[in-house]
Amino acid sequence: MEPEILQKTESQTAYDLLRNSISTALETYSNVHRGSGHFSMVTTYLFDKAREIILNYLGLNKRKYVLIFCTPARLNEFTKKLDSASYKMISSKDLGLPFGIRALAIKRSSLPGGVPFQTGGGSARLIANDWVVWESAPERFELGTPVIINIIAFAKALKLIGEYGKDIFQNTEKENHTIGEILYADDLDSFNGRDLLNKLSLNIIRRGKSVPTTGGEKPFVNFDYAASTPTFKPVWKAVQQSWKQSEKTQKKLIQEVRTICAELLGAPQSDYQTVFTSNTTEAINLAAENTGLETFSDVEPVVLTTLLEHSSNDLPWRMVANHSHITLSINKEGFIDLNELDNLLKEYNKEGKQGKKRITIFAISGASNVLGTFNDLDEISQIVHKYGARLLVDGAQMVAHRKVNLQATDIDYFAFSAHKVYAPFGTGVLMMKKNLIRIHPLKMQSIHQSGEENVGGIVALGKALVLLQRVGFENIANEEQILTKKILKGLSKIPNIQVYGITDTNTLDFAKRGGVIVFNLKEKMSDAVAKGLALHGGIGIRFGCHCTHVLIKHILGVGPKLEKFQKLMVTVFPKVQLPGVARVSIGIGNTEEEVDRLIYTLSKIAKKQNNTNEKYSNTEVKKQIKEFVKDVEERVYS
Fold this sequence. Notes:
The chain is of the alpha/beta class. A 7-stranded mixed β-sheet has the order 9-15-14-13-12-10-11, sandwiched between helices. A 4-stranded antiparallel β-sheet has the order 16-17-20-19. It has a 3-stranded antiparallel β-sheet with strand order 1-3-2. A hairpin with a 4-residue loop joins strand 4 and strand 5. The protein is globular, with a radius of gyration of 24 Å.
């Protein structure tokens, strides 16, 4: 009995160390790359370090191999293009951990060329209407936001396996919780509505964590919710519980989350299929693949998108088999013209003015990740279906902020990500009408199994949606409108700042504006503004093109000649920083006091004050930030 008891003790110790590392990573979680704040820097470092740890575990040289993270389904497609001697693979499942990760180490000399077989957010360096400059590996082959927290956990698990043995997580003792205990019960049971909203603000895992600035230590301010959201303590607790359940209970949890999604989003399971993926990008690629399998007699199918779209809702549609692609314009505030949409569909689908070409699907973002625009989906759906086309909605920026009802709006496909909904554990969702499914049942089964391997990510989504439903989306929207109005009014008082999208808070259209605000400061690149906010205010925002290159060039007035020059620049100098916009985005946990700090810090940056009387110089603070990042890395991976 003693060896068995010892093994269980070691297994529990290893699991506790893993859990503590994940907790530490969640305290400073943000999206990777292109973020300016301390937390984005930490998470990017942890994520990049994970690649190094995994390659070291496999005994591979990073100069000869590149590590690419895949879902199980994408791994199968990817390795079909590779010689078996050109890669090595390691799986979280083989370790006894339900993270849904495949780490594929490929010889750099064997990486596929040409267009990636799946495309979207992060896979492209620069995009125009008729050409794409693809990223280098690994980003070129990793769709959208990676499963960041799970990947960090996976790397930590490998370090623990090196200490305790390869089977250490196979023997973790199971727990016995009911579905209700995991998904519906928590320490905030007695709160609902605005009371729960206030409590959730206090239950954000990283709340109050201080960071170094030129003005001394300050609580970090996160204005980067559109990139990724932090999580709440009850969500993290549910994830931990889900990992330690029996396989039978885990399957029941997955099915219950399907029910939660169906009920919250108004998508009856009798009519809609819910498919769990890794993120929105993979979900839209799946919808595009399904669309490409539809057959039309004597028709040349066309996909219609808009200038608003994130590359995840643009590039996959350019690649749909046997379809052409056209784009609908927008006005300066980010709205499409409903009359233009109607006339275009009439021209193609009723009057036949484009020969055999017919618009078969219209893909549009439910809310813009740049201009914060909520287009009228009810009106759009009526027009689209009047002319016999389908409607896909990219709901990545929508689900955490507004009430959605797929059946009432008659949406055919709807995609979103859990990491935008306070559940950053790597799950995406595609909800589609069952009568539209064209993918072969055996392949659909494989796709389902791939997404469902990430049990914790699915449970995190379900728990987060339950909490948001209890808060009430009208309360969330009202709170975000108050903060958005305050930000816009503050920005209007700062000289030389140009804000894009709706700026008049008194117009009726302001109700259609979400808490995503982009701007530029005259004579300063967006990255300089973002880094200044981090250094002086401890404020994290995002900068650049936000995976919406066509839209950014449109609002900045980049003409064809400059566009071609940019293409040349990024081809010759891949690291060159192109003009973009600074983006502030809000969510649960943001306060009016944080807005005041944002406006105050931006005002100082705009006035080009050197702040020589502050306690720390920029150089000293940058050194302290590096130490801050290194300290977190040591606590996570040591």
